[in-house]
Amino acid sequence: EAERHRSLEKAARQLAKNVNCYVQYTQNVKDMENIIKDHTNGSSHKNGNDPYKHFKDKTEQLVLAPLTSLQGMFTAPQKLIQKRYDKLLDYCCHLERSSSFSSSSSTSSPASDTPPGPAKRDYEAINALLVEELQWFNKAAYTILTNCVPEVQHQTEEQRDWLLAEYPLNRLYQLKRKCNGCQEQDLSLLEGELVALLEDTDPSGSSSRWLVHTGG
């Protein structure tokens, strides 16, 4: 559970970093778009329904805020894990000293008669606390993490209608199975969704990746 705890903390930290970078990249794209509009139209187009602002606000609310809170919650358990390790070392040292004393002693009393002392009690108390609560914490942290990942959105009827109106039928394709994006700029799409083919090769000329429009 301690190892799983460390993996969850690393995942939360990395996800927060990646999402922050992504939000910054989209801001750069928006800034460049405004600069282009300034040069072509003389002024940037202002619209109350700003898609980027909506995306940024939702991302901060549903992803970054929970991740930031979650990262702060890892501190106390990590300190307790380290304290347990320190107490375990103290306990082991106590056993070694007791064993050395027993072997060099001329009395017949067995080593087990030596009182366990505070080192053993402290270790067992912290260990019992972690055994009971760390598993619960890890489950809760995992749930928060999975809730923070951007779930694939279903294509709306409005988006399908727009594609049908905008593109000829010979440029439209329907997915036979779910597609999970695994590379940069890949789309995650669901079975049955409609896409318009814009380019049937990538910039390097490979036909294994297509440039498509989803209507969104």
Automatic annotation (TrEMBL):
Keywords: Guanine-nucleotide releasing factor
UniProt-annotated stretches for the region Disordered: 99-120
Gene3D superfamilies named among the record's database cross-references: Arfaptin homology (AH) domain/BAR domain (1.20.1270.60), SH3 Domains (2.30.30.40)
Family annotation (Pfam families): BAR (PF03114)
Organism the protein comes from: Xenoophorus captivus
Low complexity composition bias: residue spans: 99-112
Domain BAR: 50-143
Tagged with keyword Secreted: no
PANTHER family: NUCLEAR FUSION PROTEIN FUS2 (PTHR22834), RHO GUANINE NUCLEOTIDE EXCHANGE FACTOR 38 (PTHR22834:SF17)
Name used for this protein in its record: BAR domain-containing protein
Domain of life of the source: Eukaryota
